[in-house]
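Figure 2 data, in text form.
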Amino acid sequence: MTNKHLKSLILSGLMIALGILLPFLTGSNPALGSVFLLMHIPALLTGLILGPWYGLTVGLISPILRSVLLTTPPLYPIATTMMFELAAYGFFIGLLHKLLPKKDALVFVSLVIAMLLGRATWGLAANVFYKDAGVPFNLDVFLTTSFVKGLPGMAIQLIMIPALYIGLTKRGVLDAFKDN
């Protein structure tokens, strides 16, 4: 295992820990969690910094591990559905960032596209898991939950993630993780 891979694994572990801890900022209140979307941030950042596979892995593990350790969000159907959503965020932002030219504006473009694809993934997973659990789910629920209720969280992500990534990149903090 190379030093770069070891650093990537350590950063992934840190991001999983952040995914577990950030929701405490909302008092682990599910109603506030679905507004501020704090668990999304580590998966998105991991995808940008380390690439699609690390982003996918952090997105898969964070909600399930948080559910198992802290019983919130409930494992089924919420954490199970979030697992697919967050994995999609991490994967797609990492893939897009890898494929597109390395320009600051394209970090924002990658983020917006990943957010849309992640929400679509959530909708598909929720359609299966929520219905299986007897939770009502339809197009209105999808649109309200994905785009209306989470507007404050989306705004936070659109401001914070590009600013963090661009700032850390320009200061050379992320140089140890290049070419992942």
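Caption note: The two ends are 13 Å apart (CA to CA).
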